[in-house]
Each structure stands twice: as structure tokens, then as C-alpha cells.
Amino acid sequence: MEKDKLWMEKAVNLALKGRGYTGSNPIVGAVIVKEGECIGRGYHKNFGGDHAEIEALKDCRESPEGATMYVTLEPCCHFGKTPPCTLAIEKAKIKRVVVGCLDPNSLVRGKGVEYLKSRGIEVTLDVLKEKCSELNKEFLFSMSKKRPYILLKSATSLDGKIATSKGESKWITSEESRMDSHRYRAVYNGILVGIGTVLGDNPSLTNRSGVGENPNRIVLDSNLKVPLNANILNIKDNAKTIIFTSSLDIEKKKLLEAGGAEIVKVNRDEYGGLSIVEILKELYKRGIYKLLVEGGSKVHGSFLKSGFVDEVVYYIAPKLIGGKAARSSIEGIGIESLKDAMELEFSSVEKVGPDIKLVGRRKCLRD
């Protein structure tokens, strides 16, 4: 078992190389071992490309017949953008497959393991399960709950302000914090803001970390106020721009669509905002399983009120702004009783430049 853990650790490290490049797919690493030696290794490099198991088989310097394959996630057994990995494993005459964690995707969900066993291939499960699950916590959650995993991100002063009373917000936190936050844009395949952020900041919502691709850009815009010259409509990449609205303005819809945006009409919720439930269903249907909610404060308030926050990351600057008119990081109706507060568990606290970065996960995740 200890040797299994050592080889699986290598597969985990390989999987991390794919972070930011696999889109809606999970990151996966694989190692093939024969007579105590690694003869092949691979990882899922990009969305639509070969899976880790295939990469490892292609990398073999000798025949993999009789070897053991270590893979961080259960091998797929269905035809998608690529053929099933289970068929390739069987054809290669792999003797044993060691799996880090099962894939909850309804197309797999134990079927890959059962297929391998039915072909006489020995399967060992849950080696470094916690570590392998952590690699794809967002993907595993999304496949189980049928909605995106939601990370709410904010950058504030020590007293929780995101702007002064005059609306000045650039910059409260440091350049180091801003660059660190872009790493999340590489990992999450959807980034969401409200129309206030688009009108006030005209952001590009791109990933400038230097690693990974741009996330899909998502805007909540009840009345289709997005300007036709907005930066989000003028970026040439493979990411989509999706605008959620309740507007019936057909002419503006056509103009935005001509600019490359997808317009999705949803209903309003009981508080008058766009329905978060409907938005999450639409995003899931489009393969957006990891959603980074960057704001602004009204959008943060809407997600908190709806209960759809799974994790938060706060960058807190050693500054005090004060004032009732200065914007807070989360606005909206709020709660009346502390018993209704969303409880988090801090998973990490670290210093980034002069700032403090807090990461917390919700204690009880909501379906």
C-alpha cells in the first residue's frame, strides 16, 4: 500500500500540470509501473485532448502488458470527445489499475471500474482519495449536485469596504493580491459580475496570471445596459460572453448577439433580481462547472441571499476607509438573525504582499 501511495503521489503531481487548461474537464494524472519502474506517465493537457491514461500509454518506453496503472480519477467508459479510456487500458493488457477516487459523472460513476473488473483487470480504489478528490473538488461537487461550484471572491479594506464614499476602488489591495487572484481565473471556467461592474470598471475579465486560459465571461444585466463597445464584447479568444437578462428589448439583444454575446433570458426572483437558481441551471447545461463570482457587492448579496456560496476568498488590505456611504463587499437585504448567518471554516490564511488572504469553505454545502 505504501508503494501505491508513492506512485499515486506522482500521478497527483502530474495532474496539477493541467490546471487551467482543461476547461470543464477534470485534471487527471496517470503513471504506469512495471517491475517497480515507471515506464510511462501522462496528464490531461487540454480540453478535447487525450486523457491522462492515453497520454501515459503513448509515453510507455516498453510494452505495458502486465503493468500497473495509477490514475487519480476513475477511467472513463463512454465515447465523448475521445474514445473510452477503459478500452485502451484493456487493449494494452494492463494487469492492475489503482484509482484515486471515483468519478461521480453520471456517464461514469463506477461503470469504468466495473468494466475493468469484468475484463479480469484488478482494481484498487481510494488510494490517496482525499488528495485526489481535492484536485477536482469543484468538478466532483458539480457532477454530484448538478450545478456549478461557486467561489465568491472579494478585495476589501480591513473594515470590509470595496470603495470610498466617492466610488474610488483602484486599488484597495496590492498588486501582489491582484495577481494572486488571477490564478482563480485560470482554474475556474466561468467568471461572473453584475452590470454595475461592467459600467463602472469596463473590465475584460481575462486571466493575466500567465498560466491557463481565459474563463467564460458572465454578466447579470436585467435591462441589457451592456454597452456595445464594452471590453467583454471585444476580446478574441475561445471563451464565451454570456449575458443573463429579463429584458424584452429585441433590438438590443440582436446587437449584442451580433457582437458575439449569448443572451439568456431568465425570470426574476422574489426580491426582484435575476433568478440565481435559473442562472446556475443554465450555466451547468453549458458545461460551466466552476464559477468565480467577482461581484460587485449587489451580486455578492444576491448569491449569499440565495444560499449559493460554496467557498470564499477575501483579500484584505491593511487600510481603514469607514463611512456609511462607502460600499461594503456584500450588500442587499442581509439577514435579521445571527442564526441565519452562513457559517464557514477557514481552510487557509496567508500573507500576500502587505495584504491578508483568507479562504473559507461553507460548512454545509447546498444542493
From TrEMBL:
Keyword list, A-Z: Hydrolase, Metal-binding, Multifunctional enzyme, NADP, Oxidoreductase, Riboflavin biosynthesis, Zinc
Cofactor(s), by name: Zn(2+)
Catalytic activity: 2,5-diamino-6-hydroxy-4-(5-phosphoribosylamino)-pyrimidine + H2O + H(+) = 5-amino-6-(5-phospho-D-ribosylamino)uracil + NH4(+); 5-amino-6-(5-phospho-D-ribitylamino)uracil + NADP(+) = 5-amino-6-(5-phospho-D-ribosylamino)uracil + NADPH + H(+)
Name this protein carries in UniProt: Riboflavin biosynthesis protein RibD
Residue ranges of every copy of the CMP/dCMP-type deaminase domain listed in the record: 2-115
Source taxonomy: Bacteria, Bacillati, Bacillota, Tissierellia, Tissierellales
TM regions (residue ranges): none
Stored PROSITE patterns: CYT_DCMP_DEAMINASES_1, CYT_DCMP_DEAMINASES_2
Amino acids binding substrate: 185, 205, 208, 294
Organism whose genome encodes this protein: Anaerosphaera multitolerans
